[in-house]
Amino acid sequence: MTEFFEVLDRDGAARIGELRLTEPVTTPARLDSVLVDSGSLWAADRGMPDGDDDALTILPHRSLPAGSREEVREAFETDHAETEFPTAAVVASDDPTPQGADAYILSDASGFVGHGEGFKDAIIGAKDALPADTALVLSGVATPRNVALLAYAGVDGVDAKLAKVKGSQGKYLTGDDELFLDDLDELPCSCPACQQPRAEFDREDCIDHNVAALDAELRRVRERIRTGRLRDYIEGQARHDNWLTAAFREFDDQYSYLENRTPIMRKAELSAATSDTLRRVEIQRFAERVTTRYRNRFDNPLVLVPCSARKPYSDSQSHGQFHDAIGYRGHTVSMTSPIGVVPPELELTYPAQHYDSVVTGRWSEDEKGFVANVLEEYLRRNDYPRVVAHVPDHGYREIVERVERDSDLDFEYTVEGHPTDTDSLANLAGALEGELKFSKRERQHNTVKAIADYQFGDRAGDALFGDIDIQTTGRYPKLQVRNADGDQLATMVPQYGLLAMTLTGGDRWLASDAPTKRVEIDGFVPHGSVLAPGVINASDDIRPGDEVVIDGPAAFAVGRAEMSGPEMIDSTRGVASTVRHVRER
Ligand SMILES: [Zn+2]
Q1: Mind giving me the DSSP string for 231-243?
Q2: For 231-262, what is each residue's pLDDT tens digit?
Q3: I need a surface site. Which of 216, 434, 507, 510 has the fewest CB within 10 A?
């Protein structure tokens, strides 16, 4: 049970936490001033320190060689659970055994920081073994340049030891570089230490600057985590040191480590500016769900169109023109890098209306391959009587032709010159002549079902809203789903294109065959939120931001998860889920 550390906010593996000392510390942070080391047991026989709430006390420790026998380890184990003050335990990354501490310091950090694969293995190993609601601390390795990546990987605490040593050696550290002080004509910083004339700036000042630069970078990192934009920063910043780029690519290859921790939706826009964006969880997850959960329910031909810079696409001028030509006679699916394909029912669903990409008209081979793959998978799962490709030359056309080669369907191409040219639009309208329009009712029902598929799992839309006589009310995108009696089951949330359930909807969800996201709680009635200690069990596939039903002997509720299902079970502190509606049993 951790009493003195709580995770308050999450952005992938990175988190904002609070170390509850007399003076609380918001993490990720530099912990030099609060870490008190009681020393190694190898050097001397040490009694239990007194400790207090002002500091994070590192209890006496012994680093044991890797592979030491179990009974040897147990004999040397320190019992943190019996202390009443904040404690940290020193563990080796190859044997990170939980000891009831509030924080864990990896003793071999200087061995793996600097090596992409080793760093990834050490961090994931430690995170898997140690409770989610404890702080992970690396000592003697942080620099202004690497600390953003350390936090991105899930590190909560660092110190300034290395930055000070480098300063004393005349190495001037910045967020992008390590420079020899003697080589600098100007100081590229305006911290207090750097205010003085260049000639008077000595190694003592360099130490002060390095610490200030580390602190500034940590402030930047915390702010990025709060706004859900740390990954955007990492993709650019990591370029300044190759091992950092290697490390974050290593983490991209560990999809489940990041996917478990990545929220279902965010307020912030996602910046798609590098080739690595294709690998990030939000992009991969959308593509995966569109090709394994989404199901087309229209009988009309597929019309492939290019995306627009303006989001949602249907608000753009070009898509307005496509719509005038198509007029609900075709199922208009947008092709885009880096998202893949976006069916119209999901055009509001995160991140489909939340990304901003660099528009040059040039497609990299990676982008073409990615979009072609998604389109191919999409067509394998969804049957269409015809495919009309209303796409421009260059990237788009090449991708569609690549997919057509492996398809049984003959694609019809309708663009001459530009997709919004009069001739092109006339071709598009002509291609759909004789096709029947689908109704507004069909459109709205298919939209809420498609979102349910996407959000809850394969076939969830039919299981939840299929075999009852549902009705939709309200004006798109603010749709409400109601049963035959008019009771509201769910609301579509336009900002994220996801569903929020009512209690009646929650009842129906639990009773249906749809995959549920269920949080089982103890015998209490939650108000506003459910705290992690009250959670008895939680579905494995719950992600931060997911819609959940909360079920216990005293209450039934619906709400939104603040942490993943595994973290809810693992944690003894923090808000597991917010509660929207609750009913006492
Ligand atoms: Zn400075």
Answers
A1: HHHHHHHGGGSHH
A2: 999 999 999 999 999 999 999 999 999 999 99
A3: 434
